[in-house]
Amino acid sequence: MKRYILTYCLLLMTLISKAQDPQFTQFYANPLYLNPAFTGTSTQSRAIMASRVEWPSIPGAFQTYSLSYDQFFPMMKSGFGVDIYYDRAGSGGLSTTSAKFLYAYELKIKRDLFIRPAAEIGYGQRGIDFSRLTFGDQLNTGNPSTAEPIDLQRKQFFDIGAGILLYAPKYWAGMTFSHINTPDQSLLNDKSPLPMKFSLHGGYKLRLQSQKSLNREYVFFAFNYKAQGKFDQLDLGAYYEHNAVTIGVWYRGLPVVYNKNTGVGRDAVAILVGWSQNGMNVGYSYDITISQLGLNTGGSHEITISYEWANKNNRRNTKRRRVIPCAKF
Questions:
Q1: CATH number of the domain at 24-131+154-320, out of 3.90.79.10, 3.90.780.10, 2.40.160.40, 3.40.50.1980?
Q2: 223-277 pLDDT per residue, tens
Q3: How far apart are CA 243 and CA 108, in angstroms?
Q4: pLDDT per position as a tens digit, 36-56
Q5: Is 94 strand, coil or helix?
Q6: Of 32, 34, 18, whose CA–CA distance to 235 is shortest?
Q7: Domain ranges of the chain
Q8: H-state helical runs in the chain
Q9: Which residues does residue 128 pair with via DSSP β-bridges, in sequence order?
């Protein structure tokens, strides 16, 4: 009974809320989704996969999948990439598919200080899977098809965004402006613009061992503030990295502010663990819900896998590049 009541409350929240983008706990492990300015910040070539299941204890849990590829071209001082994601929300199978092309240019301001302006353009599609819905006449007659008039169509739209990233050996800071053109996502014959999303993120890298030490031991402090429509949220976290192993903890919410528009003051505490070896990075995180929904949601599970490599022809140029100090998860 508690599960059904919670599901009903979530449906009511969905009816009165505006659309927001899916979110990832390990957003630095999925950097092209976070900011197009991260395009080409790997060793040289990089492929990333991410999978997130949010609130698995609720019928029709939110599921998000992401796939991206990017490469840096040293002679052009440019990064090119593509980012694809698929998101399915609720029992009705409301799905969104998006594919974006990204470009970033790297400028050296002075020694050990770089800036990367970037842009992205994409195509999206949104719709409902009616095979996952049950209407009243189907319950009364037992007929697998419904006679209800359905005037919903799949919506297609273009999407434009931009970002910028500033970094030095020990710190980084970036801004993203997504959905600058506020594309219409309405499935009916009306207007439902997707609000522009703003993100401000950054962090600091602290080395715990001397440069002469053979051990890699770092502490990362990082944040990500995002705002979209009436919704805003802050992620604060820290990582400890020792050689191939990384552990971290994140707090998501607004610690001292209660948003009266969304009813969200605090959201979750996330625990993550990661492993890195020879260009391969694997991370797992679990979100513990601390909002009013409590532990009945089942939290959220997220897995990220990335692989970085350098082409033989440009390996020398790659070694001369300075890779940003950003955390991997």
A1: 2.40.160.40
A2: 999 999 888 899 999 999 999 999 999 999 886 555 554 445 678 999 999 999 9
A3: 29
A4: 999 999 878 999 999 999 888
A5: strand
A6: 34
A7: 24-131+154-320
A8: 2-16, 31-34, 136-141, 315-320
A9: 94
